[in-house]
Amino acid sequence: PLQQLQPKVVSKRLRTSQRKPREPQIPRSLIKEAFRHFAKMPVTADAFKIVEKCSERYFMQLSDDLEAYTHHAGRKTVEPADLEVLMRRQGLVTDQMPLNVLIERHFPLQYRKLLIPVAVSGNKVISSK
């Protein structure tokens, strides 16, 4: 006689994972690479841990400030003008040093083309939008 096949009983997890949800973080390798580029010398592991904590706090404060500027303007989306206001308040952008000059000075050409509208032949302006 044939035996009937019994379906396997799969137990359902009643609880979710025990792990706490993690906030997104900047990859350690990116922070390390950027710091080594600007420091131009070897960095000890202890010093790097401090740099990593400072970077994390800096970017958290940066995002909180951008969020505050956006809410103050009555919007839900951060716009380039918010970032420019933030950089102006930090003293990075001034009347003598506009944002476009900083972009041209510190970004490679491929990114400059994305960030700054460029006039091409026929006087057509290509924007990033």
UniProtKB/TrEMBL annotation:
Subcellular location per the Swiss-Prot or TrEMBL entry: Chromosome; Nucleus
Taking the first listed entry, what is the main subcellular location of this protein, grouped into a coarse class?
nucleus
Q: Which domain of life is it from?
A: Eukaryota
Q: Where is this region: Disordered?
A: 1-25
- Which GO biological-process labels does this protein carry? chromosome segregation; kinetochore assembly; mitotic cell cycle
Per UniProt, which keywords does this protein have? Chromosome, Nucleus
Recorded GO CC terms: kinetochore; nucleus
Q: Which Gene3D superfamilies match?
A: Histone, subunit A
What SUPFAM superfamilies does the database record attribute to this sequence?
A: Histone-fold
Q: Name one Pfam family in it.
A: CENP-T_C
Per the UniProt record, the lineage of the source organism begins with: Eukaryota, Metazoa, Chordata, Craniata, Vertebrata
Residue ranges occupied by any CENP-T/Histone H4 histone fold domain in the UniProt entry: 23-117
User: What ranges does the record list as Basic residues composition bias?
Assistant: 10-19
What name is this protein filed under? CENPT protein
Family to which the UniProt record says this protein belongs: Belongs to the CENP-T/CNN1 family.
Q: Could you tell me which species this protein originates from?
A: Copsychus sechellarum
**GO MF assignments:** DNA binding; protein heterodimerization activity
Q: Where are the transmembrane segments?
A: none
Q: Does the keyword Nucleus apply?
A: yes
